[in-house]
Each structure stands twice: as structure tokens, then as C-alpha cells.
Amino acid sequence: MLYWMTQFADGGGIFNLFKYITFRAGCAFITALIFGFIFGRPLIELLRRKQGKGQPIREDGPQSHFSKAGTPTMGGLLILSALVFATLVWARLDNPYIWIVLLVTLAFGGIGFADDYAKVTKQNTKGVSSRIRIILGLVIAGLATYAAASFHPAGLTDQLALPVFKNTLINLGLFYVPFGMFVIVGSANAVNLTDGLDGLAIMPVMIAGATLGVIAYVVGNFNFSEYLGVHFVPGTGEILIFAAALFGAGLGFLWYNAPPAAVFMGDTGSLALGGALGAIAVCIKHEIVLAIVGGLFVVEALSVIIQVAYYKRTKKRIFLMAPIHHHFEKRGWAEPQIVIRFWIISLILAMLGLATLKVR
User: Fold this and answer.
1) Which tens digit of pLDDT belongs to each residue from 129-186?
2) Closest CA to 116 of 258, 257, 261, 269
3) What's this model's pTM, rounded to 2 decimal places?
4) Nearest-angstrom CA–CA distance, 84 and 82
């Protein structure tokens, strides 16, 4: 919104700073962070009063989780509020990719809010049926993928770009939209499954978001993309502002979500942020790199899929409990130990994802 102030930049001056994506990204980060610090505590108190017993705890979960009973959920509202506010203030609102990512984030946040609301009011862990959540998610993801493809350059529309291999494209044709739907919905649900311990999901989301933001900036800059041999997608550089706002909002939330958590992210946050990562990957044509950068989320989701499939076939379990972070809890790992080690893994995977820009 404040980008319009560049009209006052008559050959230089302070208003000229607003032309630079990096400057506005830094401002978006600070804005979202301060927003989280200011409104975090009042929101938590409001959620605690409204929710009473807070988020219901799984009866078959680790014993240590029962001490968390009464902790309010829907903390994702703080993240989304800070993220959206900072993005609207500092991003160019005539950029279609900003709106695609924002709307996907809010739409999945809406699904998550409905799920959290059902869990809190009914005081059970079922919430909205998974079938309805998946169907709504697929519709949103389908529309977003179609919109992103319509703004991609002619040579990249419906194409799947492969990392490492320079100028290598796979023409998916009519299958590109279903592929994009799979990426966005899969990302949303993978992050949702990861959100099971205090601080576990938010830091990997921040790391992945920041990594994709850097890639978006490179992909949206002709000189950088040409030098590194990646596909140039005009306009995607603006996504760096969204990613910076996400990082700031995430830090503001982590202040209250650090063990012991004063508030849980809930599906309101996890589905929204996962959907955001998927939408960014589709917009910048780095869907496969998302699987590398967000490898932790992939492993968490696969652990559930493998556990369910194996149990249905043999009536036995491979993991002590799925998702896999609960397996390590059952093995006696302390919660902070799991969280910090998973953060380290996320950072390593982010470095590998960034390396794909150069290794071509």
C-alpha cells in the first residue's frame, strides 16, 4: 500500500527507498513482528476467556501432553493478522502473485478456524470432517493454481521446472492444475500434521518461507535469474515481502508459543501457513524445491501415511506413534530436544534448497 509513496521520489530522497523490494521486505518483517508483540497477549487472554477448557488433548497421545490441558488454541489468528496487515501495508497491491498467496492463506486459515471452532465447542479432537476439509482445500488450490498459471510467462505455463537441471521443463499440460492442487493441499496438511509440539511447526515454516522468499526474489529478478540459470518469472520478487512478513509474524507468535506454550497455533495457523508455502512454490515454479526445503513436513506426512497403510494391512505399527515426532516422544526424547533437533534439520534442508539455485 505504501508503495504509492514512490511517486514523491523525484530523482531520489527517502521516498525512493519504497521502490526497493528489499527495503519494503525489511519493513514488513518489523511491522509484523511488532504487531505480534503488541496484540499477542490481549489475543491470548481473549481466546482463554472464550474457549474455557482450551484445545482438547488426544486421549491416546503422550502422557506429557495432558499437562497442556486448558491451553487456548487458534493462535494462528495472531500470525494471520500480523502477516496480512504487514503485507497489505508494504507490498504492491497491483501484483497478482501477492493476492494469490494472500487469498490462499486466508482461505485455508478459514478452513482451519472452522475446524478449531468445532473442536473447542464440542470438546473433542475430531472437528470438521477430513473429507470436507480436503474438498474445500482442493477447490481453493485448483483456483489458485489456475490463476498463477494464467500469469506465468507463455513458455512456463503448465510446465514443471526441475531443480539442478538447467532449462529443463516437463510439460504437464492439463495435469498442471491437478499437480498444483496436490502441492498446495499436501503442503497445508503436512504442516498441520507437524504442529504437535510447542514451537515445532512455526520455526520450520519460517525457515521454509524465508527460503522460498529468497528464491522468489531471485526468480523475479531478470539479472539474478539469468546469472543463476533459473527460470525468470516476472513479478514474483514481490513475494519476498510476504515471506518477510511471515517470518516476522512467526517470531511474534513464537514468543508466546515457546515451551511451555501460552497458546497453540491450531489448524487456523497450520493449514494457512502450509497452504501459503504451497502457493508460493506454485507461483515461483519451484514446486519440487518445496519438497526439499519443507522435507521435514514431507517426512511427518509420510510417517502418518506409512503407519496407517501398514496397520491396515498387518494390524501392526511401524512407529510407536505417528506423526513421527510422537514416535520420538514415546522413545523418551524430551519435547525441547525433539523441537530443536527438528529445527536444525529444517535449516539444513533450507540450505540444500538454496543450493539448487547454483548447482546447475
Assistant:
1) 889 999 999 999 999 999 999 999 988 999 999 888 877 889 999 999 999 999 999 9
2) 269
3) 0.93
4) 6
Q: Is residue 62 reached through a cis peptide bond, with omega within 30 degrees of 0 on the bond before it?
A: no
pLDDT digits (tens, 9 = 90+) for 273-298: 999 999 999 999 999 999 999 999 99
Grid coordinates of 243: 515471506
What is the distance between the alpha carbons of residues 285 and 199, in angstroms, rounded to a whole number? 29
Domain ranges within the chain, ordered by starting residue: 22-355
Please report, as a single letter, which amino acid is at residue 354: L
CB atoms within 10 A of CB 229: 13
Grid coordinates representing 300 are 511427518
Q: Do 350 and 211 form a contact (C-beta atoms < 8 A)?
A: yes
Contact 73, 120 (CB under 8 A): yes
Cα–Cα distance list, 128 to 105, 111, 135, 317, 325 (Å): 18, 9, 12, 26, 24
- Separation CA 208–CA 275 (nearest Å): 12
Q: Distance (Å, rounded) from C-alpha 67 to C-alpha 82?
A: 29
Which amino acid makes up residue 325? H
Looking at the chain, the number of H-run helices and the number of E-run strands are: 13, 2
